[in-house]
Amino acid sequence: MSPCGRRCAARLGYARIPDSACVQQTHLPSTYDTSASFHVAYGESYEGAARREALEELGLANHLRPVGKFCHRDPPEHQFVTVFTMDHYGEHIVLDPSEATCGRFYTRVEAERISLTESCTPWLQRALRMLTTTGTW
Known about the structure:
Nucleoside Triphosphate Pyrophosphohydrolase; two-stranded antiparallel sheet; 3 helices
């Protein structure tokens, strides 16, 4: 089993989601995904991993807030997913080109529409649902 944390950079009613055509992934190509998704390294906390990935993939080091956790089965892995939010104050986002080449901020309504009508990773759909049900939006 491999613990896995996922984070949507979100706050103040917007979520940053890489556009599906811009995500560099082989597992689910042309699929909307979270802003930073990662496996937690041995001995690393979920928050530490989220902080590391936000810096590596987005160039952001702002305060993280935990939203919640859920389990996701993606054979052969059983993932323990933790969702965080992060404030964005307009600072420049520096994308890791090996992860994504573009993305943008979406309102809650736009993100919900994408999750219902577009190809999205299952963990993005669950994370967006969690943001809504917890009142984090």
